[in-house]
Amino acid sequence: MAVTVVAAGFVYFMVSNLALDVESQAPFVTFGPANVEGGSATFVVAAALEARLYSEYRVNLVVDGIGGSPSALSPATILSVGSVSYEVTYLDLGGEGVLNGGDRFHVAALGGPLPRNSHFSFFLLQSSGSFVQLVSWTTR
């Protein structure tokens, strides 16, 4: 009887820890290359192997080595980096509220084009702040 209880406890412990490990792992998301045109940048989610609500993500932008503050991902997210504000537009192509392959991002400066001769890195983060993916581009 005692051996059965110990064995059952061990199995419960292993299964519950396995479940925690899966939940704490970052989702696998890849981006296509950024297309810089008309003073803004657009890129696609090439793949997202785990369906998660887009509200479970945060985004951030680094411009010429200066970072903004991460903000919750929404259909229109405003990020401030230095003295410039940027709008990140997220297009959920399926309309299901889940970040997945085919969805698109558009990054533009508010009130004008992206600054010229600048290097940008867009970060996708989990709501906890853990890194998921990035895409970088340079304006000319």
Descriptive account of the structure:
- This protein is α+β, with helices and mostly antiparallel strands and 140 residues long.
- The chain has a single domain (27-138), classed as Immunoglobulin-like.
- Helices cover 16% and strands 47% of the residues.
- The chain contains one helix and 13 strands, in the order αβββββββββββββ.
- The strands form three sheets. Strands 1, 2, 3, 8, 9 and 11 form a six-stranded antiparallel sheet that branches. Strands 5, 6, 7, 12 and 13 form a five-stranded antiparallel sheet that branches.
- The chain is globular and about 35 Å long.
Short synopsis of the structure:
The protein has 140 residues and is of the alpha+beta class.
What sequence of helices (H) and strands (E) makes up the elements? HEEEEEEEEEEEEE
Please mark out the parts with pLDDT under 50 across 5 or more consecutive residues, or reply none: 3-22
Q: Which fold name is given in CATH as the topology?
A: Immunoglobulin-like
User: What's the count of strands?
Assistant: 13
Question: Can you tell me the CATH architecture?
Answer: Sandwich
Termini, distance in Å?
74 Å
SS summary, helix count:
1
The total tally of domains equals 1
Rounded Rg: 19 Å
Largest sheet: 6 strands, antiparallel
Shape: globular
Mean pLDDT value: 88
Name the structural class.
Answer: alpha+beta
- Classified by CATH, the class is Mainly Beta
Percent of sequence in beta strands: over 45%
Residue share in helix:
10-25%
